[in-house]
Amino acid sequence: MANALIIVDVQNDFCEGGSLAVAGGAGVAAGISRLLAAEPERWTHVVATKDYHVDPGAHFGDPPDFVESWPRHCVVGTSGSEFHPELDTGRVEAIFHKGEHAAAYSGFEGHADDGECLADWLRRHDVDRVDVVGIATDHCVRATALDAAREGFATTVLLELTAAVAPATTDVALRAMEGAGVIMHGQPVISAA
């Protein structure tokens, strides 16, 4: 069996200067790149997810409530939807786009360009263990890790390579992941805002 690193939504709009920036996002991008360079044999496979909005309806709010609706972000065709330049994507074998026409938080809701979903891709590559990193700990990382565990993958979140939106939602996310049997290492970067 094999293991995989799932890089969640390390995109310009979620990093400093983006439309829905999370403090520490650029640092997470650089940290993931450093780890991939330092430990090239650690993962058999590396995949990534992208928020990839065309018209996600009520997911974009004007004004946003920052609970169910958010500022416009990661719109297809904009620089905000691109991976952060500090993220080295050289090892990324597949990218799973999510949220084109509805809210989508988990990478397991996404699909590759050929339509294959993340769970099927991982199983086709004999993956049984996944490590999850990226943005944001309390939203898309949480949802992706919970779905990975539900799909039967042994799941670990490398919290030191995640950035979180807020302390309260991060506490809820950490409890949910622990309750689902997700292993967690380190501490996330959490915005003080």
TrEMBL record:
InterPro entries registered for this protein in UniProt: Isochorismatase-like_dom, Isochorismatase-like_sf, Isochorismatase_Nicotinamidase
Domain of life of the native organism: Bacteria
EC number(s) reported in the record: 3.5.1.19
Transferase in keyword set: no
Top EC class of this enzyme: hydrolase
Key words of the record: Hydrolase, Metal-binding, Pyridine nucleotide biosynthesis
UniProt-recorded name of the protein: nicotinamidase
Origin species: Micromonospora trifolii
Lineage of origin: Bacteria, Bacillati, Actinomycetota, Actinomycetes, Micromonosporales
